[in-house]
Amino acid sequence: MNEQDYQKIIENIEKEKKYELNNSKLYRIKKDKRLLVIRRYEFEGLLYMMHNYHELLAHFGINTTYEKIIEKYYWKGMRKDIEIYIKFCDRCQRRGKPIGRNELHPIEVKEPFYQIGIDFVELLKVTKRGNKYIIVAMDYFTKYPEAKAVKKDNAKTVADFIYEDIICRHELPQKIISDRGSHFKNKMIEELIKKFNIKHKFSTSYYPQTNGLVKRFNKTLYPVSHRIMMSIILLIFGI
Ligand SMILES: [Zn+2]
């Protein structure tokens, strides 16, 4: 939705019957559903997440992507935007047609938050709030990424994130997988892990697929432009 329309709705929100403001986010009311209104600068990031990254939808065709997106989101002209985005998708063009799901991950996990992979993504630019990294934890079962923009990539950041954003907000994971970086392999993390009786496995360069999930997530973030990256962060991570 363009900025002018968006602001107009916000200004008249009390009179609007089709829209609702919740937690400073605008929703369109459609029957019994509340659809998040996507602003102009957000839709590229959303489409990137839904079409290029999303585990089940990656590089699906226009109709499937559209059907999935209208379940949760709304903006004017969304069908057309989705169509154009997919028609110009590099990978879809090279393959001739949209493809199905990604290859399955070799590690089998049976329940949500049983096993999580954790890693840092370095941002291309420091954000207004002084954040330089995103710490990402990916659940191996649901592929749900929990992420937070942070200032430092040290042990304290990792410990706080595991405790506040994983243990307190989700389940207590049984296994955490990370690389051997000093922010993951240290006394502070060791104590936290022991306290909650979690197993910590280190992926090594000999077996890079062990932590393949987070790495793949990161790889999909790295090559995108700064603009898309920022809109993903704004939209998905709400910062
Ligand atoms: Zn594609």
From TrEMBL:
Q: Which GO BP terms apply? A: DNA integration
Example GO molecular function term? Answer: nucleic acid binding
Q: Which GO terms describe its cellular component?
A: nucleus
Pfam families given in the database record: Integrase_H2C2 (PF17921), rve (PF00665)
**Which residues belong to any copy of the Integrase catalytic domain?**
108-239
Protein name listed in UniProt: Integrase catalytic domain-containing protein
